[in-house]
Amino acid sequence: MENNTKNADLHTHSLISDGQLSVGLLIKEAQKNNVKYLSITDHENTYQTKEYQNLSKYYNIELKFIPGIEISTKYMDEEIHILGYYNLNTINEIENIAKPIREIKKSRIMKIIEILKELDIFIPNYLTKNIKKTYNRVNIARFIYSNSNFENIEKVFKTYFDNNSKLKLEIEYPQTEEIITKLNSIGCFTGIAHPSFLKDKDKFEYLKYFTKVGIKGVEVFHPLIDKNLSTKIIEFCQENNLTILGGSDFHGYDTKRKEIGKYNTFSHSAEYIINYIKKV
Ligand SMILES: [Zn+2]
Question: What is the Å distance from ligand 1's center to 156 Cα?
Fold first, then answer.
């Protein structure tokens, strides 16, 4: 039964992309919340893994760390986020896939900062000086939130970045199939993040298609997936031999995704992934 314990938080974000906590603090909080397997899946980045490697030289980190990443892609007219868990030996290849998308995101952020200036909102330069970081709109929203009276970061996001805003600025993300195939070819374990974000009419059609393309898992446990949908996706995973993924998608205590270790998946899922990426 031990193997069925839900103690694997396989989807979190640190300061390296749009999270609120450093890698060290995130690990500390995860351990405090009894997480035994942790993946820090910062957007289009691998520095969180390097930071973990450094920390592990000096501190006794008890949980099992699974190197991970989240990559934004596009299929039809929808943005699809791919979770990838990888072997440390392939970190340079992962970085090569991530870097171009990181650059696109950064140039969008620079444009957003310019438009905000016209609205008399000045984002300080130091926020964009760290070359290791992935810049997401959440970073900008967090700054505005901390200097205003908005209720939470999501409200800021809605006000400035929703569909009708001139700050929306669409990005041309790579095709979903291309990223799944590239990641699979270097032995990465790939899965679909938060399928609840997909339009209802497309959801299972898309999942079927991505299964054909080669994904190995689907995120079932997540703060923004309701029980009914989780149950359906679990069935889908069982029918298609896919691994049940899950995680808090932690971004910060100032967001709605703020509970590390609350949306864990099973330890056997984590062990399966660890064994899968070992084969590289
Ligand atoms: Zn995420």
Answer: 18
Ligand 1 midpoint to CA 113 (Å):
23
How many whole angstroms from 46 Cα to the centroid of ligand 1? 14
Edge-to-edge strand ranges of the sheet holding 243-246: 68-75, 78-85, 189-192, 217-221, 243-246
Ligand 1 mean position, distance from CA 11 (Å): 6
Distance of CA 193 from the midpoint of ligand 1 (Å): 7
Distance 60 CA to ligand 1 centre (A): 26
CATH fold of 2-99+171-278: TIM Barrel (3.20.20)
Domains of the chain, by residue range, sit at 2-99+171-278, 100-161
Cα of 222 from ligand 1 centre, angstroms: 10
Measured in angstroms, how far is the CA atom of residue 54 from the centroid of ligand 1?
Answer: 23
Residue 213 CB neighbours (<10 A): 16
State the pTM of this model.
0.94
Rounded Cα distance between 215 and 20, Å, is: 29
Are 199 and 97 in contact, with CB atoms under 8 Å apart? Answer: no
Distance CA 217, CA 181 (A): 14
**pLDDT tens string for the chain (280 positions)?**
456 899 999 999 999 999 999 999 999 999 999 999 999 999 999 999 999 999 999 998 999 999 999 999 999 989 999 999 999 999 999 999 999 999 999 999 999 999 999 989 999 888 888 888 898 898 899 999 999 999 888 899 889 888 777 788 888 999 999 999 999 999 999 999 999 888 877 899 999 999 999 999 999 999 999 999 999 999 999 999 999 999 999 999 988 899 999 999 999 999 999 999 998 8
The Å distance, Cα 122 to ligand 1 centre, comes to 27
